[in-house]
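Duplicate of earlier report; LTA synthase family protein input re-posted below.
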Amino acid sequence: MKKNDALPYILIFLLLLIKVSAFRVLIFDTKSILHIVLIEFPMWALLLSAVLLLAKKRIWLAVFIFNLLTSVIFFTVTLYIRYYSTIPSYYDLQQLTQSSSVSNTISMLANPWDFLFFLDAILLVFIARRFEKTVKIVAMKYTAVTMAAICAITIVYALQQPIIDVSYFAKENGFLQSQLAQLYNRSTETAHASSSKLSAKELEELKGNKYVEVSKHDNFGIAEGRHLFVIQVESLQNFVIGRTLHGQEITPNLNKLLSESAYFSNVFQQVGAGTTSDAEWMANTGLYPQGMIPTANSLTGKEVPSLARTLKDEGYGSATYHADDVTFWNRDVLYPVLGYEEVFSIDDLPNIKTVGFGPADEVLFDFVAGELPRQLDTYERIYANIVTVTSHTPFEMPGAMEYLNLPAEYEGMYIGNYLQSIRYADEQIGLFIQELKDRGIYEESLIAIFGDHSGMHGTLVTEEDRQLLSNFLGHTYSLKDQFTIPLIFTGGNLFEEAEMTRLGGQADIMPTLLALLGVEHDEPMMGHNLFHYKKNLLGMRYYMPGGSYIQSEQFYKAPGAKLPEVLYDLKSMEKRSKNSEAKKHIRDTETLMNYADTLLKDYIEE
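Output:
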């Protein structure tokens, strides 16, 4: 092969190496060029070699297409990790078609430097014009064989390693290797780690409690025979409850409601890639979500022993309400699996006062109120699951829906927009609760209100936002502030004002509701009755590296793509040295998550 024949070939692969190196440095803060050359680059080089071999006479067109796809992948992964703080899986590409995905905030997530991933396309134009002849096929065959040999070694090694956290796995074994390992684990069921099973007694002991049958809990059945309303509030975090900004309450209606409620202020989100739909899954099954794959996207359609089905045996009719497309997050599959008898989505609500993805919360609550008379005539008791949507990122509200007079420094800031949207959501919840009271339904109901996941997270929260958050909170905005969501139980003459600081998670919502209603559930759940048990152990898979846990005294963040492991005191969020107790909790969390996967396996695609 002549020297000139080899030059364009060398330049093409050199550009790819530079781009792959930039990707590794940006995403993983990689310092080792040897790791890039031996682990990350060969997989991409093998793909490029295969493309060139298949292209034959259309070699430059193939190079441009491959280059563009690679740039798009790197660009997308960069934005994804900024928002979700984790590496996306191959399955997450399906989320790009979701109407409420990160694409709505792409202009806020993107940095002008990110577009440098596309810069080499310009250089390829010059190379293509300079070298009209195609690269010699024989040279690419040798390269492909060499890269294939290297890749085979790295892939075989990667498949032998457990995937505790996808981002950390990708850092150590390569991005493409991590995707292949997830696909392999999914097809062989090794993603579920084991088929371990725990009895209810063993599960509770793992959390640090002595098991007691639910029917013997002190609060069992205190709301027996009541209607049930569950209000899941978009992006509602706990730090806004009870706080003021220049004398203005952020949640005046929820604050007022606390005087007749049991308020759990130490409850953590546990959502996976399905975010809001994962919160619905947990609140209605008591089971954990998948983590890196939206649970609703993997459901086989098999019926799950859910809150709606269990209550149906007690004479309840169920309905769920959400002002979005029912196909979003595969809710057209999720809702039949959960057993709702009536489903109301954007197609059923009046198309008025649209904010973001659909009709505003006030339209949603008015619609729910309008359905109540018919449902009360139809069913002995009603269970209404209401999912709000207006307080969704980027939290931009029309002026007529802004209730706060923001200080100048909050105007136009992400935190300012967030507080405005939460204040709006609080107003609509207050009006709906008052509607229930006016109709005499409140006295006959049990009502649960909780947040689905954090709103203030990712790189959308700028340094200026963080400073304003610190001023607002009186302390540095921590992971605990980010992940805690309020959980409020209320209803006529049920509770006196009480704040409960014991640790809880979203998987605890269904078991707690059933205990209050005096209904026993024969199927296993990951959660427990928050009113009875004082200790807890929560596994985390999303927004934090896999293997992370939250325990009644400790908060552990496992090693991730860029940062090392860290152990915090849960109350103060001060760093602690890793001790034998923490090591035990790490092992217990692995057992917990294996059991969670075992329970979930019956309902998701293999």
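Residues 3-28 form the longest helix (26 residues).

Merging into the original ticket.
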